[in-house]
Structure formats: structure tokens, C-alpha cells
Design brief:
elongated; 182 residues; 8 helices; single chain; mainly alpha; 72% helix
């Protein structure tokens, strides 16, 4: 291979990489702008209110709905940051933080990630179904295993004897216990 052939190959690779970057930017930048509008219009607050009954089926309190909605739409970094903040502030238990993390690991930034695979010829509905179904199955199994390991005397979050109202326990002792349990 001579210098001319190497230069042509490098030029071609650079051109293809540039097209790929521009295609990704054409997808990601409008999504980021849309997300900012959604945040400004408080769509995530309304979405988390609608998700609250569903997260209770996973044994989670209503406080888990907002980090779940944000992580599923905005991505793992943003969702995990909200999980950490919520756990530190006592709105989520340690168990809830782990279950939420297990749910968001395979199913985060569902719209953005799905749309990024469309130019590669991937069926977006199939990809979305596999990611969401796998994440839900993993989370249900983890929640049930965690509950069975906890024993019969420990109610699930938000259940009888738990934080049925979704409010964390108050007082300095309970805050200190929650912080050390993370």
C-alpha cells in the first residue's frame, strides 16, 4: 500500500466518521432542546405523578417515580443523580435506590438511544420493547428477591407499616440512619 492509497483510505474514513457525527448531532441536539422545553413546562412532574401508581407495583414509593421518569427520558447520569439526591434526602430507601438503578441500567434515555439506532436499520419499536421488557423483568425479579431475602417481618416500601403516605420518617435519628444505610 502506497502513500496515496493510505491517504485516500484515511480521507474516506474521516468523511464517513464526519457523516456519522453529523447524523448523531441531527438526532441528539433537537432532543436536547425538546427535553429543556419539557423540563420548563414541568412535563416530568406530571409524568412522575402518572407513574406513581405503577412504581408501587414494583414495591417502590411514589417518590421513586420522578427519578424513574427523568432517568428513562434524560439518561442514566441524570436519573442516577436524582436517585442519589432522593436517597440522601430520605425520600428513597436503600432498597428503592437499588431497584431503581436496576430498572434504569438497561432502560435509560429510551427515546434518544432508540433514535440513535434507527440510522443503522434497527427497528425502533422492537428495540424499545426489548429494553423496556427486559428492564421490567429484571426489576420485578430483583424486587421479589430482595423482599424474600428481607423476610416476612419487613413490609415493602409504601406497604403496611411502611411509608404508606410516601413521606420519609422524620427526626434526626431517622435521617442519620438513612444516610448511614447508603
Amino acid at each position: 500500500m502506497g502513500w496515496a492509497e493510505a491517504a485516500t483510505a484515511i480521507w474516506q474514513a474521516g468523511k464517513e466518521a464526519g457523516v456519522t457525527v453529523l447524523t448523531m448531532a441531527a438526532i441528539v441536539i433537537p432532543l436536547m432542546v425538546a427535553v429543556e422545553f419539557l423540563r420548563e413546562w414541568r412535563v416530568f412532574d406530571r409524568l412522575s405523578a402518572r407513574l406513581a401508581p405503577g412504581v408501587s407495583r414494583l414495591g417502590l414509593s411514589g417518590h421513586a417515580a420522578f427519578p424513574l421518569a427523568a432517568g428513562a427520558v434524560l439518561g442514566l447520569s441524570y436519573g442516577s443523580g436524582l436517585i442519589i439526591d432522593s436517597a440522601r434526602e430520605g425520600r428513597l430507601t436503600r432498597r428503592e435506590a437499588y431497584v431503581l438503578t436496576a430498572l434504569l441500567a438497561p432502560c435509560h434515555a429510551i427515546f434518544e438511544d432508540t433514535l440513535l439506532f434507527v440510522p443503522l436499520g434497527v427497528n425502533p419499536f422492537l428495540l424499545l420493547a426489548v429494553r423496556a421488557g427486559g428492564a421490567l423483568a429484571l426489576t420485578l425479579v430483583l424486587a421479589r428477591l430482595w423482599q424474600s431475602a428481607a423476610g416476612p417481618g419487613i413490609p415493602p416500601a409504601g406497604g403496611p407499616g411502611g411509608r404508606a403516605s410516601g413521606e420519609p420518617a422524620s427526626g434526626p435519628a431517622s435521617r442519620s440512619a438513612r444516610r448511614t444505610s447508603l
